[in-house]
Amino acid sequence: xxxxxxxxxxxVSSQTKLAQLLAVLIRMSLMTLVSLTSLxxxxxxxxxxxxxxxxxxxxxxxxxxxxxxxxxIALVLTHPIQSRYIHRGDDIYAQITSPVTSxxxxxxxxxxxxxxxxxxxxxxxxxxxxxxxxxxxxxPDGYVAPVSGPITMESNQGYALKDPGNGRVAALIVxxxxxxxxxxxxxxxxxxxxxxxITASNxxxxxxxxxxxxxxxxxxxxxxxxxTVIGAAIGGGxxxxxxxxxxxxxxxxxxxxxxxxxxVLQHPLILQQDQxxxxxxxxxxxxxxxxxxxxxxxxxxxxPDTDPGICWTPGTPGTPDVDIPGTPAxxxxxxxxxxxxxxxxxxPPTPHxxx
Length: 355
Fold this sequence. Notes:
The protein has helices at residues 9-41, 44-47, 165-189, 225-248, 273-285; strands at residues 64-67, 72-77, 81-82, 91-96, 100-102, 105-108, 113-124, 127-138, 144-155, 161-162, 197-199, 217-219, 253-255, 260-264, 269-272, 310-313, 322-324, 339-341, 350-353.
């Protein structure tokens, strides 16, 4: 190589710097490419923010609807209630007859069934009072909403019929009979034992004790028939009064199927809105058969009293036997023999239909 063609030292130095700069640029380009590739491979949730509609919540939000305290709920019984056979903890069943609303929205459709547990039962005149431990509302879509107690239901006026029971009915029948028998026994035992005094009527100028004349008064055997009848009548009246008092003292009652009852919520009732909406929709599409409300029981009209009753014809006390002693013979008088006059038997009172 000739000296003219040999590169100078300055030229070699410039080429070296250019090569180093080129290597630095290539290295930076490779690093940038690697960074972009890694960034492209990251999940979308880390690289780009998502809209609120695309983000699913961890727990679904349940919207509630509230039925305020003091709301009146009308129901009708679907099973009869006989208080003497209902005990604490037993179930009773009813059906809501009018839609229950919260604001302008129906939250419990008519026809919804309820099941409640009894605490105790009572009667207020012709109203039945049902004190409940708890209650559950069974919606048409299967949603069950519990209602905490205490809860009070009350039947409408005139639907709670008295239930005296077999024992009190028997007392009402047996009482007068027993009273009549006991009164007759007492009347017979306390009857006067002095007998009946009969005053004899003698002709004018006849001296009692003389021949052919009777004593001024004669005492016969005791008359107990009249006292027995009076005692029987008094005893029968007392027995009837006792039977009526026993029958009226019963607090048991009977409510038949269809008897209307009502309750007032003591506490707010919180329901799930989606379940309520589904229940209302299903109720509109497939109405639940409703239990008809029964007519108020009407007591039978009083029957005309065609029985005139029993009247009594008074009996007669009768007369006792009379013995008149004879007189002894005195001088020329032969005396008189004793005379026996038979008495007239007593006749008891005779019953007969009153005119």
